[in-house]
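stuck on this one:
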Amino acid sequence: MTTPFSNYVGATRPHSWFPPARRRLLFQARNRAIHSTTTRPFSVAQPRKFADVDDSFDPRRQDRESDDVDVCIVGGGPAGLSAAIRLKQLANDAGNEEFRVLVLEKAGELGDHIVSGNVIEPSAVNELLPDWNNSDNPSRFENATKATHDKMRFLTKNSAIPIPAPPQMNNHGNYIISLNQFSKWLGERAEE
């Protein structure tokens, strides 16, 4: 004899009334019933349309931009922009004012793909741009905060336990910056 509780569809009592093993079977049956009648697409993106074999696409015949440059740097992050600045400095010191450096960046603006913060050790920036953080410089980087102290914590679910910081993690004399803002600032310095 079947009762209303023999399968999920006719059940009128709450699931908590059933023992755990039976509850598990009822939920599995319910999930099978729901997922077997409901189909959901894996992706909502439009399917790609690939070129047919008969399409005559020749990339050599496409119009492309071209430019004559001495150095092309791919990537407008801090490293690429610093390289561009240094190359222009060396060329200007050698008397080659016509030296052309091109930086290619895939983002719409410099720094758009760099969204993290950073603690920067300033010796390389001091060498590249000695007055980068000088208050007398009108084009200085204004968004640098001096690191004053370090704290190391072991994080658990409910607390933060202080632990000693390793000596190599000493940030005294360093600066806390946004890499996004720093990349935009470096881009402005590279254009000068």
User: Anything to note?
Assistant: The first strand starts at residue 71 and ends at 74. Residues 87 and 101 are 8 Å apart (CA to CA). Helices lie at 20-37, 78-93, 123-128, 179-191.
